[in-house]
Design goal:
Strand content of chain A: 25-35%
CATH superfamily of the largest domain in chain A: Formyl transferase, N-terminal domain
Oligomer: homotetramer
CATH architecture of the largest domain in chain A: 3-Layer(aba) Sandwich
Pathway (chains A, B, C, D): Purine metabolism; IMP biosynthesis via de novo pathway; formate from 10-formyl-5,6,7,8-tetrahydrofolate: step 1/1
Shape of chain A: globular
Order of helices and strands of chain A: EHEEHEEHEHEHEHEHEEHEE
Radius of gyration of chain A: 21 Å
Number of domains of chain A: 2
CATH topology of the largest domain in chain A: Rossmann fold
Number of strands of chain A: 13
Largest interface: A-B, 33 and 33 residues
Keywords (chains A, B, C, D): Hydrolase, One-carbon metabolism, Purine biosynthesis
EC number (chains A, B, C, D): 3.5.1.10
Strand order of the largest sheet of chain A: 7-6-5-8-9-10-11
Structural class of chain A: alpha/beta
Active site (chains A, B, C, D): 227
Function (chains A, B, C, D): Catalyzes the hydrolysis of 10-formyltetrahydrofolate (formyl-FH4) to formate and tetrahydrofolate (FH4).
CATH class of the largest domain in chain A: Alpha Beta
Distance between the termini of chain A: 22 Å
Chain lengths: 283, 283, 283, 283
Amino acid sequence: MKTTILIHCPDQSGIISTVTSFIYRNGGNIIYIDQHVDKEAGVFFMRLESDFENNIPDISTLKQKFEEELAQPYQMEWSLYIGSKRPKMALWVSKYNHCLYDLLSRYNSGELEVEIPFILSNHPDLEYVAQQFGIPFFHVPVSKDTKEDAENEQLRLMDQYEIDFIVLARYMQIVTQKIIDRYPNKIINIHHSFLPAFAGAKPYHAAFERGVKIIGATSHYVTEELDAGPIIEQDVTTVSHSHNIKDFITKGRDLEKIVLSRAVKLHIRRKTMVYNNKTVIFT
Amino acid sequence: MKTTILIHCPDQSGIISTVTSFIYRNGGNIIYIDQHVDKEAGVFFMRLESDFENNIPDISTLKQKFEEELAQPYQMEWSLYIGSKRPKMALWVSKYNHCLYDLLSRYNSGELEVEIPFILSNHPDLEYVAQQFGIPFFHVPVSKDTKEDAENEQLRLMDQYEIDFIVLARYMQIVTQKIIDRYPNKIINIHHSFLPAFAGAKPYHAAFERGVKIIGATSHYVTEELDAGPIIEQDVTTVSHSHNIKDFITKGRDLEKIVLSRAVKLHIRRKTMVYNNKTVIFT
Amino acid sequence: MKTTILIHCPDQSGIISTVTSFIYRNGGNIIYIDQHVDKEAGVFFMRLESDFENNIPDISTLKQKFEEELAQPYQMEWSLYIGSKRPKMALWVSKYNHCLYDLLSRYNSGELEVEIPFILSNHPDLEYVAQQFGIPFFHVPVSKDTKEDAENEQLRLMDQYEIDFIVLARYMQIVTQKIIDRYPNKIINIHHSFLPAFAGAKPYHAAFERGVKIIGATSHYVTEELDAGPIIEQDVTTVSHSHNIKDFITKGRDLEKIVLSRAVKLHIRRKTMVYNNKTVIFT
Amino acid sequence: MKTTILIHCPDQSGIISTVTSFIYRNGGNIIYIDQHVDKEAGVFFMRLESDFENNIPDISTLKQKFEEELAQPYQMEWSLYIGSKRPKMALWVSKYNHCLYDLLSRYNSGELEVEIPFILSNHPDLEYVAQQFGIPFFHVPVSKDTKEDAENEQLRLMDQYEIDFIVLARYMQIVTQKIIDRYPNKIINIHHSFLPAFAGAKPYHAAFERGVKIIGATSHYVTEELDAGPIIEQDVTTVSHSHNIKDFITKGRDLEKIVLSRAVKLHIRRKTMVYNNKTVIFT
């Protein structure tokens, strides 16, 4: 049985050896350990992959021991994941198909260790892609008047399919606060600029207007403030005066795909931790 | 005799063939032609390298003909440079030596086709570098009270040495409007962020605070508005949670050097044109 | 009517102005001109986009004039393409779907200005992708005994569908000499290494074995010698000791997709010229 | 007292907790831990930074305990470094000054935590740079007839100045086997290609000939076989048909500087381990 444990707590002497000894005493072999100390904030972060090969422990007993022997004395916030359980990812889209196609073809070739119970959209346009890949598609239109109904329907679907996290694959609608609160650091967005430059609408137009020589894309967790959540992944590509806005958009699409898929993979592999509106990314 | 001609004018049919015919009729061979049309603005840009090998024309006659036959009918703004004349570049610095060392070692190895008549600084710290390379160093301190005197001294030096353009190699002082006006699109600055993100002071601190995964540097022509002039060159490098502010600064230094030196080279080779607060860069 | 003309010929004085004048005299407006001189080889290259807006010429007359007035006196090799005609691209695949999905989703979103008459494979595995996108799929198995039959069937299909160029989207079989001869500089391959390093089979394994810190992908025109044809496009990504061969393969897939699609786009837009087993790429 | 311990040994269960407990029991606080398992080879690698703040141990006792309690039972190869001791780096150069200037200006600004006792060259050309920076310069010419004398003089200087490692900053001469044997994995070379492509002489010429679209530089430890030692760092930059060999060389110089300086920093910080002619680089 493989497990992944994520921990953060106030930095103290001896944490690493205490935690590693705990794992060892309980029959686990540590496969991979990552840690980070934010010295300014005085916070310790750790990610531990362990293998309980021949000594499969009772999970709830293990968790209780961990809580009593480690989490409480060290004031840890922590979570433990069982390796074999695939998280359930909902894909939210609008009209652009490039990120959707990219994620689905990766899913199709076994690159993403998730289940995709459904695709949700505020427009009907991309139903055909869902059909190509045999995945349920739900059209939940959102207008000023139907906002609350839409939110309820979204939440109902999320509950019914026991969704673990949401990927906004160019979902062109603001996600409501209620949903953000229900899925803290579990909604991944792709913004088509190199944040914090060009937050908000029409970033490619703004980038063109400013005459930048490099454009970017940013994947981040969604928080209350628009395009201001913890950044998971960014990438850039060069542009020149010879590119018009349409070229920016086309070049940007390739960035969006790659940046979003990398962020999704990091999240699936539980390699991201959030603290102080920033991410610790264990790679 | 090699010449470089830069032109911009309202876009019209037939410009390219008219200009190329003019060169040919006057005994020149076109070595390299670059052009660009900004379709939105309706502006045509052109850069022409020609060789008047066996038929060295009288320059002032050539210029007059160009003005009458081409510039006036097509409403061109244009300039003609003689290839053999090296422009004179003033280096302005403060306390950081990395960009200065980088430019001087390139100059030293023949990579920059310029003359460097002097290095100017508002601090005495880097005089030793000037001495290492045998270049005159002028210390012009700037304080609230001496601002005007300093400006006058700066202008006097610029005039005395017939400076063509200024490179601010981490000059940590705002250049006065009078100097900007005297050297329009001829003052090259390096800003240590990926503009327009993190304009102004302490960009590495701001980038660290925001938790970005990529940092950058931007070289631009200095205009009235701080860090908002036409961008010549940008580049970026990746960072992670494991880098602290000092790491950002160290990694950033390498970017600053490379971005500034590229911008300086483009300017020296007359490969930059400015329009609408943006650059056309012919590479 | 928009046209693109590609020319290469011995370098001589006056070519640019002669060609641009020709276009102008025949009612065309030059939209974009690219040229290059290989000084060592003494060869001149040119790509001309022209718009014959109000004066649509008779194409065969235009071609004849060009041949007589320009091509013969300047010993040009040249070709003229009409902008509105989409080239016909055959996709050859084997078992990997990532490049296929990538190209088809770009095609689907209008990014590729081609027709795709069919997908051909030596294996039946990817027929389902062809079906997803509604494109005919032909399974032409290749074994030692059936090599000649397969080649005949391949050529028959190419002729029947009037294919202009072939994209080997991870076609894991050597293309026969007869087909290479029929489609000179018209077969685009993607090789999963940074050529010339790791030519031949299993490049990711070889790269892993050597302990490189960067892996790459290369798109090139297919010639007689394996993986040695003119390079169109290359890109790379970083790897580390923490990546195993499977990681190399996964990371490499993203490179292969992006590099192949860029090469295909350059070819479609007639931005590639081949000379001396190298490419001139006009961007 | 800060220490860095590097370990590699056959992979076994419980190593991490055993080592971390050892440090803790001996009064150390683990600041940073990096580990890697090469699963194919069955080898475990670890790098441990520890701080013995209030309990400064006797180093030789600590080493003896480590040897008995850990190294012997686990068959470890290991080394322990005291943080405060700066390694001594010899710079070997020939005629090109770019890498030398780059390293010296970094050294000058405090970026490299080393001592540089001397610069050695087989040519007198760069003595002026040594003088600029006030570092002793030794001219040790190498010819067919004087090879052995030169080697002896090189070794004598290395011994006299107690050199820890050598940086070949474009030293254009093959280092003798005797010296390689004396400094195993302690001689850092910069090769001006993306190895394994274009090993040997004139890599930029070979790259130009092949028509690559990307050129690179590689820093590696020197081993018996030319340009085939363990790779520490690589980087690349794009080129096009418009660049001639001189452009390749100029662009390449920037790569060489950055790649070499990164490799030197990794070595200084003891972040490199060598196994099976490959490196594990802890970043």
